[in-house]
Amino acid sequence: MAAAAYQVLVQAIVTGTQAPGARIRDGELAAQLHISRMPAREALKRSESDGPAESVRTAIPVSRRFAPSAAQAFPVIAAPQAPARGPACRP
């Protein structure tokens, strides 16, 4: 399925159906082709490695699970930051 998804994806890029700079998300590709997200991800990864598409990651979100325990996990980093969390730093 990933190979077929890849062929459809490349054809869409070559014919201009997917414009340069357009964001192609695995979930949207999967829904469009009526396949699961895994083969869609594989097709996207292959298109990135073969050249017709490129991954642009401008930000990596902080894990919601990790954030509350970050001070416990990294006490040396958290200690100097503690004074900066006082009332003077609030808007």
The end-to-end distance, rounded to whole angstroms, is 52 Å
Outline: globular
Helical run tally: 5
Query: What is the arithmetic mean of pLDDT?
Result: 76
- Residues in helices, as a percent range: 40-55%
Description:
The protein has 91 residues and is an all-alpha fold. The chain has helices at 2-15, 26-33, 37-50, 70-73, 75-81. Helix 1 (2-15) crosses helix 3 (37-50) and helix 2 (26-33) packs across helix 3. The protein is globular.
Features:
91 residues, mainly alpha, globular
Architecture blueprint of SSEs:
Blueprint (H helix, E strand, L loop, with lengths): L1 H14 L10 H8 L3 H14 L19 H4 L1 H7 L10
Helix pairs in contact: 1-3, 2-3
In short:
The chain is mainly α. The protein contains five helices and no strands.
